[in-house]
Amino acid sequence: MRPPFWFTNLRYPHQATFLNSRIRDAEKLNDVDILFVGSSSTYRGFDPRLFAQAVYKTMNLGSSSQTPQKTTELLNCYLDRLKPEVVIWEVNPIAFTLDGVECSLDFIANAENIDASSIDYVYETKHPAVLNALLYRLFRNCTGLEKDREDPLKHRSMGGIHTYISRGYVAFNEPMYSSYRNVLQVGRAQLRQDIAWTPRPEMCDGFKKGVRLLKTKGIRAILVRMPTTKHFRERWVPGQDEEFASYFNQFAPFYDINQLVKLDEATHFLDDKHLNQDGVNKVNSYIVEQILCPSRANAKAK
Q1: Contact predicate 284/47, CB 8 Å
Q2: Which residue range forms the structural domain that includes residue 56?
Q3: Residue 190 maps to which CATH number?
Q4: What is the pTM for the complete model shown?
């Protein structure tokens, strides 16, 4: 519901990303083994059911276009509550280049409460869409719409059904997805090529603060770059993968999954940037068996 006089440029991602359900889950939990943070590749890429099979309790706090600044804010908010032994931070190089608008809209529309950080979103982004979304959220609070909110655990788009899974994961059932992939193929020709990585200084600063916070609290940080299709990777200038690895390895162990897990682009991807369930199963198995289990064994030996 919007008032009849409302702004024509209102962007309000209500329910579409399941962020409200994710936050509600996080508020109920404590003492998890692993906390996942990062962009949409996080909440579509790390399935808590698979980690539970290896006896890991997890929580996924990924969100759409989550910037390093926002990730650090989430860490400050939830580390003491969740007490993770490990934080797996999905480091998407694109997230370091974003202005934070989409991420801010998502949290304004779906956070449990509006507080000072919501005002910060307006100041930091200086974007009218963020101000409009905040004003509309305040309108919803004042009229009782937010109090009676009940988010569905499923919604339909992209030729399939998105389903929220407890602890933050979003699964995708794709009965009609082949037609959507055809649309993606046509749009690829319009994508910009030969992109050089130019991260925003404020995002790098936010990332460094997050890493320092984890070190201060004695929490193991694992940095993961989730896989993308060959077409998407080739948009970067030559040598960019090596630059990413050199940058992130300064701060914590870094794993570029594209270099470590052999994936079939026809059967393991939802789109150029996200895995389907078969791809998630394969990548999560690798992380459990090759990254987490050896670490757990070494910790017990000590």
Answers
A1: yes
A2: 19-301
A3: 3.40.50.1110
A4: 0.89
